[in-house]
Amino acid sequence: MKPAHHSIKFITSRCLVGTGARMLSVFLFLFSALHAANEVIPGAPAKELAQGVQKKLSPKQLQPTATPKRQTKIKIHGLTFMSEEQALGLLGNMIDHIVGHAPSPSRADDAAFLLEHTLRQQGLPEAQVDWRIGKRNRNIILNVVQGPSRHLGEVIISGVEPAMQEELVTYFKQETIGFNLLGKGQIPYIPSSVEEAVANVTVHMQSEGYWNAETSLVKTSIQVEQGLVNLHVAVKPGPLFLLAPPELRGPIPVDLIPLRQQLSAYLGLPANTQNINASRKTTLSYFLKLGYAFTEVQMDKETVGHRLRLIFTVQTGNRYKIGKINITGLERTDPSILQRRLNRSVGTLYNPEKVEENRRKFISTGAFSSMLIDTSPRNDGYIDITLRVQEGRARAVGTHLGAGSYEGGIFGLSYLDRNFRGKLQTLSVSGEFSGLGLLGQASINDPMLFGSDLNGTLRVFLLSHEFDGYKKFEAGLGAELVWIINDNYGMRFYGESITARTDSAGLPDEELGYTEYEVWRLGITQRLDFRDNALNPHKGFYAELLTEAGVVTGGSPIPYYKFELRSSYRQPFFESDFLTLTGRAGFNFNDDQTNYPIDLRFFLGGSDSVRSFPEREMGPSVRGDAVGGEAYWIASAEYNRKIKGPVYMNVFADAGALARDTSGLDTADVHLAAGLGFWLDLPIGPVRAEYGYNMNRRDGEPAGTFHFTIGVNF
End-to-end distance of the chain based on CA atoms, in angstroms? Predict the structure, then answer.
């Protein structure tokens, strides 16, 4: 009879620690877990279970029993490596069958064996434990001869690049079972664990495309006084295998030419896990999109010289059209909001990827904590879908604190309702105070406007900021539509109406242009994105083009046209280094440069500009305060190198120019910067600290500037 389900899960989690689990440790924990669930016979011999000799248990023996009452106390003598309490803690439930019964020679022998094995797992490879039963037959006394301690020292891996060496060493430095209880910061030396790590290194090399890789432990040296065991591991990677044209097998009822064209994108690429899985996913996705929702793709492989050929055996199954779509579990949410989007697919070929895409879209609103999909195929060629929904906490009140080299301290309050009025709309109200001033705004967002793929937002805001040279107050209303056409291309349409006032804080009034004015504008932003990660990209191309037209009223109307192009390209080098090239340019055409408001001009300088200048301080100035310009360009090159873990170092060079009017860009002063920085690769994006040095400093300009920011440099 199989053990209880929770015991199986426990053992499985241990097995996943490495590719080849430590068998003795696994059986010891199997022994522990089974006793914890009262699923073994009290008094079962510890040695048999620890050595993996498992007996078939009867249903009666598997019945839960009461927790055994402690009748025996175990005392440990001669142990200095850890306390008696720590040692007993490591033994845990493994000794329940001993302490729950009266002392006996067999139980004392079990206790000695378990302690000896545990000590050897903790870096005492020569530990010996014998036993005796105490006076009045109440205690089991374990006498320990520790022997020298042995912990893992330096691990040298030869034959591969330094970056990969660091990654491969982690296989040898994995914590052993119970290690955290000791907290000594050392990894016990266990020969079987080293053998497992050597095997895992070979598997890792194969996953990188080195299918003939060999790994061997060539030298073991002991530093007796320190108790350290140093290892030298040699890796022979062999040739890097490349992907050959795949082979497709099975009774396939569709044209395979389009699929072969898609798979040709992987030909000649390294035969690593990433590319192999991508090839299989492409094959499966091809059939799913054709309506073969229950397609199974079995993958085999064969080597042809230094190439790896993937063999896909395909079983397509039947095609179905979507029939009824049911939703259960809704309380606050209006079901018609979900139905309006889902009903568009009724009668179309069932594609589980498309259904999953809708599920992720609903989950991303934040209104649901879970959403499960059930399907029921019908005999008439249709399939019914049921969404089982659990709504989450949609409302939240929050605060945030932050700091920036330009904004100074930042404090904010916010209220969020992710399911406003049960319509899956997001209501957001926030206020923020920083070194620049105050910002208050409220918005309502519909991520599936009218059940479509359009994301719509209405926004009102109030703003009071003080810049070097002038202050501004602004109130406005805006609307935008975001249309993500595919993974690489998207568009944003927007319109705004703004009422603004500016006042001098050092600049002459004539430099401000209109000081009380309104702006009406419409614009479109187009995005082309081939980056590997939007938050912290290391590879790929990105471009963004903004086109805007508007009119300024504060006297005579001033029409204007604004264009801004941004682009970046990242190219990886070696294992974790990459080069970033960025370029930006902008033009703002208008017919009245004298009255055109200062706040509508371009300002340069800062962490995403020429980094030798503080924010907004590069370019034309009056009385030491920047006045902005109407045309600019920026170019930057940056090399990023991984130091250790999430820590990166970058060196960069920036160049840029800002002209007061569009006709003067070709003669504007070019500013040059070079610098050094460090940044952390975090899930929220890079946290950057950089210093830019002014390479061609002019009178009144800074020698350099330090920047601290969160976020990618475009």
Answer: 60
* Single pTM value for the model: 0.70
Residue pair 1/8 in contact (Cβ under 8 Å)? The answer is: no
For 119, which DSSP code? H
Contact at 8 Å (CB) between 284 and 220? no
DSSP string, 475-525: EEEEEEEEEE-SSSEEEEEEEEEEEEEEEEEBS-GGGS--SEEEEEEEEEE
Strands 242-243 and 307-315: parallel
Total H helices, total E strands in the chain: 13, 31
In the chain, the amino acid numbered 129 is: V
- Tokens 């879209």, located at residue: 361
Q: Which residues pair with 685 in a beta bridge?
A: 682
Cα–Cα distance list, 645 to 163, 167, 387, 709 (Å): 11, 10, 41, 20
Q: Which residues pair with 464 in a beta bridge?
A: 438, 473
pLDDT for 58-92, tens place per residue?
Answer: 434 334 444 455 578 899 998 887 888 888 888 88
The DSSP output letter for 110 is H
**Residue 165: its H or E element:** helix 162-169
pLDDT digits (tens, 9 = 90+) for 472-497: 999 999 999 999 999 899 999 999 99
Distance, C-alpha 407 to centroid of its chain:
28
Confidence at residue 185, expressed as pLDDT on a 0 to 100 scale: 62
- Quick check: 307 and 243 in contact, CB under 8 A? yes
Q: How many CB atoms lie within 10 A of CB 231?
A: 21
| DSSP 8-state symbol, 683 | T
DSSP string, 216-277: EEEEEEEETTTTEEEEEEEEE--PPPEEPPPEEES---S--HHHHHHHGGGTTSB--HHHHH
- In this prediction, residue 117 carries a pLDDT of 87
Low-confidence stretches of the chain (pLDDT < 70) are 1-70, 175-185, 714
* HSE of 683, CA atoms in CB hemisphere, 13 A: 0
Q: Can you tell me the distance from the alpha carbon of 220 to that of 230, in angstroms, rounded to the nearest whole number?
A: 6
DSSP codes joined into one string, 571-613: EEETTTEEEEEEEEEEEEEES-TTTS-GGGSB-B-STTS-TTS
Of 591, 595, 707, nearest in space to 654 by CA: 707
Contact yes or no for 634/613 (Cβ under 8 A): no
What confidence score (pLDDT) does residue 57 get?
37
Q: 629 is written with which tokens? A: 């310009």
Query: To 10 degrees, what angle do helices 335-342 and 352-364 make?
Result: 150
624 CB-side CA count, 13 A: 5
Report how far residue 201's alpha carbon sits from residue 234's, in angstroms, rounded to the nearest whole number: 10
Using only C-alpha atoms, the chain has a radius of gyration, in whole angstroms, of 34
Give the angle subtended at the CA of 415 by the CAs of 413 and 419, to the nearest 5°.
Answer: 160
133 - beta bridge partners? 140
CA dihedral 648, 649, 650, 651 (to 10 degrees): -170
Contact 594, 584 (CB under 8 A): no
b/e per residue 301-322 (b: at least 16 CB within 10 A): beeeeebbebebebebeebbbb
| Domains contained in the chain, CATH given | 5-145 (3.10.20.310), 151-236 (3.10.20.310), 242-315 (3.10.20.310), 321-391 (3.10.20.310), 447-710 (2.40.160.50)
Q: How far apart are CA 231 and CA 539, in angstroms?
A: 35
Three-class secondary structure assignment of 28-48: HHHHHHHHHCCCCCCCCCHHH
The tokens 């330096």 sit on which residue? 154
Which tokens in the block code for residue 114? 């378990």
Q: What's the pLDDT at 225?
A: 82
